[in-house]
Design the sequence.
């Protein structure tokens, strides 16, 4: 099969998730060097990025599984980066897995891929069987799904080829200032896209989602009129805040009020921080690894990791008893089962948690008065 410079669509007519145009690959960099056949029972889509150290480790882990099950298991590593960036990376870091490029990040957005690494397991019918961090997908899981899914299909039936007009990919953009913002009039994003770009962080999304990210609060805590909630692309120097530059540039004011509602209350009177030696993913990598059960953070602040906890629980997080420091630490927090999270936080970090009615801030964005 020759997939070069064509668009791939994973298609399953029985699922809305796999409707035409919803999931696209724009280019196949290479087909699998390990899979021994063009048929398989299970297909794993491995979402990754060249800058994400945990992703590279996860891909290596999947490569081991691919070698152990070369005849019924097929892994495709999928990046939404520029194909030239991926090709340069693979020259220095070769892999035997199939590698493809996403079409405008559509597959990433369609699967609500907010954190990396992330993976989906599909059977021959295109049905999603499993999703989460690839390193949580164990050999025992693979064997169980193989027993349950014996039907095999050709790769080109599950990864359906559709030829459309090629696109010319632009070279990676490099900002000329510490802060840049521009409105995107022809693009919309269901969730905020936040990517490291060298010395910068790039945001793409609604103004509401960008402000929520910068304030480390839930989007539900931000109120903004629809006519102001436009889509923007923002570049901000790493370590700096984009909040006030955005407000100044767009001539906006930000007000807050106190409201009461359900919160996760954290008593940090006796907090015991980890140092930065517990997790080490290297430089210029993802700060977080979030899966269905836990949040891991490499060199991140208390405020940042609590924002991630609030996001996965969809619940404002409020602290009492002491002021959290602003230093960077490593973190590993369970979030799926409340009782386990409760004991995990207290035993590991000395943090006592409770669900209760509490006071938290809500923010309103308005145009500055003349």
Sequence:
């Amino acid at each position: 099969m020759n997939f070069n410079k064509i668009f791939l669509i994973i298609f399953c007519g029985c699922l809305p998730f796999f409707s035409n145009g919803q999931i696209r690959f724009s280019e196949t960099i290479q087909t699998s060097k390990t899979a021994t056949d063009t048929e398989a029972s299970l297909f794993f889509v491995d979402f990754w990025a060249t800058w994400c150290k945990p992703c590279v480790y996860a891909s290596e882990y999947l490569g081991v599984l691919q070698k152990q099950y070369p005849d019924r298991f097929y892994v495709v590593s999928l990046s939404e980066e520029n194909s030239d960036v991926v090709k340069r990376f693979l020259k220095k870091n070769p892999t035997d897995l199939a590698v493809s490029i996403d079409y405008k990040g559509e597959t990433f957005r369609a699967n609500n891929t907010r954190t990396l690494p992330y993976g989906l397991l599909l059977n021959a019918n295109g049905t999603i069987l499993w999703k989460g961090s690839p390193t949580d997908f164990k050999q025992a899981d693979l064997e169980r799904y193989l027993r349950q899914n014996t039907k095999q299909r050709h790769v080109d039936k599950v990864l359906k080829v559709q030829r459309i007009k090629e696109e010319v990919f632009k070279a990676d953009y490099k900002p000329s200032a510490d802060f840049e913002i521009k409105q995107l009039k022809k693009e919309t994003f269901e969730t905020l896209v936040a990517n490291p770009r060298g010395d910068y962080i790039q945001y793409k999304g609604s103004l509401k989602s960008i402000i929520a990210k910068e304030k480390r609060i839930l989007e539900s805590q931000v109120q903004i009129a629809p006519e102001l909630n436009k889509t923007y692309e923002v570049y901000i120097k790493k370590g700096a805040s984009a909040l006030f530059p955005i407000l100044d540039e767009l001539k906006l004011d930000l007000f807050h009020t106190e409201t009461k509602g359900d919160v996760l209350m954290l008593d940090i009177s006796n907090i015991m921080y980890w140092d930065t030696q517990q997790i080490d993913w290297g430089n210029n990598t993802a700060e977080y690894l979030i899966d269905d059960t836990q949040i891991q953070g490499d060199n991140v602040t208390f405020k940042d990791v609590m924002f991630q906890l609030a996001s996965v629980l969809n619940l404002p997080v409020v602290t009492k008893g002491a002021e959290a420091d602003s230093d960077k630490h490593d973190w590993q927090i369970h979030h799926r089962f409340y009782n386990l999270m409760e004991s995990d936080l207290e035993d590991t970090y000395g943090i006592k948690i409770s669900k209760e009615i509490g006071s938290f801030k809500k923010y309103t964005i308005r145009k500055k008065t003349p």
